[in-house]
Amino acid sequence: MSAPVIEFRRATVRAEPEGRVLLHPVELTLTEQRVGVIGPNGSGKSTLLRLINGLLLPSSGSVAVHGMDTATMGRRVRRSVGFVFTDPLSQLVMPTGREDVELSLRTRRIPAADRKQLASDVLARFGLEHLADRSSYDLSGGERQLLALAVVLAVEPRILVADEPTTLLDLRNDARVRSLVAGLDQQVVFTTHNLDFALEADRTLVIDDGRIVFDGPPPDAVAHYRHLVGSAAPGGA
Question: Which segments constitute the ABC transporter domain (predicted)?
Answer without folding.
Answer: 8-234
